[in-house]
Specification:
Blueprint: H1 2-78, H2 80-83, E1 89-93, E2 96-108, H3 111-126, H4 131-139, E3 143-144, E4 147-148, H5 150-158, H6 166-178, E5 179-193, E6 199-202
Antiparallel strand pairs: 1-2, 2-5, 3-4, 5-6
């Protein structure tokens, strides 16, 4: 009788162990399903939200560039300083500002060499006895690695109407005609003043949109 009771106890233990293992297996499956469901829901929700934000940012980028280009076009109408510029400018209002930059390279083509000859002829005839003025004007035609410096050349532009001389006029005209700007990319930067009066950048990454 005692042996039968012991055998039943062993059988019962085995059944309980089997049941426990089955319960553990089911629990693991449930945990796996919970994890996989959570993973799928998280990926779908975050990617969908990221996509919506990306579309919003792309739309905002287009609006921002369109608006700033409109402002610049109006600025060019009455500002001689910006009339021949490459397009860099900044607007500011009530502790907020937007900066627009165009990245590229300014170059002068082969006509710039003819322009130099006209200007040199003018300088030699007009300032033969004025070495300082000759050196000043010629310094604005200095080349670095074969290229004129647009910032120096713009100083020549500023003197265009100062001299009524055919060589001078033709030289400036050819310089303007030879100027080329290889545009590569536009940038917009947004800033806002903090409570300490310091400009803080509003971080928006437009570069890959």
């Amino acid at each position: 009788m005692e042996a039968q009771k012991q055998k039943k106890s062993v059988a019962q233990l085995e059944a309980e162990l089997k049941e426990a293992r089955e319960s553990e297996r089911i629990e693991k499956l449930n945990h796996k399903k919970v994890y996989e469901d959570l993973k799928a829901e998280t990926v779908l929700r975050l990617v969908a939200k990221a996509y919506r934000l990306s579309l919003m940012l792309a739309g905002f980028k287009k609006d921002a560039f369109d608006d700033m280009q409109t402002v610049y076009a109006i600025l060019q109408e009455y500002s001689s300083r910006h009339a021949d510029g490459k397009g860099n400018f900044r607007i500011e209002h009530e502790g907020m500002r937007v900066t627009y930059k165009r990245q590229g390279k300014a170059t002068f083509d082969e006509r710039s060499h003819q322009a130099e000859k006209h200007i040199i002829d003018f300088v030699n005839s007009k300032f033969a006895d004025d070495q300082d003025t000759r050196d000043l004007i010629m310094s604005l035609l200095e080349r670095k690695k074969g290229e004129l410096d647009i910032h120096l050349v713009q100083k020549l532009y500023a003197m265009e109407n100062r001299f009524n001389d055919n060589n001078w006029k033709r030289g400036i005209e050819l310089l303007k005609e030879s100027y080329q700007y290889s545009h590569s990319k536009d940038y917009i930067n947004f800033e806002k003043r903090d409570e300490n009066g310091q400009w803080q950048t509003i971080n928006l990454q437009f570069s890959n949109i």
